[in-house]
Design brief:
By secondary structure, the chain is an alpha+beta fold. It is built from one helix and five strands.
Length: 70
């Protein structure tokens, strides 16, 4: 699948990048990584995340933030 084929708001990974890097489609030419907009080519190959993967990503993120408070 390519970036262009995603819907705005979809979460995805880029093959070959760290599994910790989860991106979100912000518009037709940008994605966000940790709330920072990054340009991306429409033809970039991406792997959309499933609902379970998104849920797990946010659970791990929440757990990490909680550990910082301790």
């Amino acid at each position: 699948m390519t970036f262009q084929q995603l819907e705005i708001g979809d979460y995805f990974r880029i093959p070959g990048m760290s599994d910790r890097c989860v991106y979100r489609k912000a518009n037709s030419s940008h994605c966000s990584l940790n709330a920072l907009l990054q340009p991306i080519r429409a033809e970039t190959k991406v792997t959309p995340l499933t609902f379970a993967e998104i849920t797990n990503y946010f659970a791990l993120k929440q757990e990490f933030l909680q550990s910082l408070k301790r």
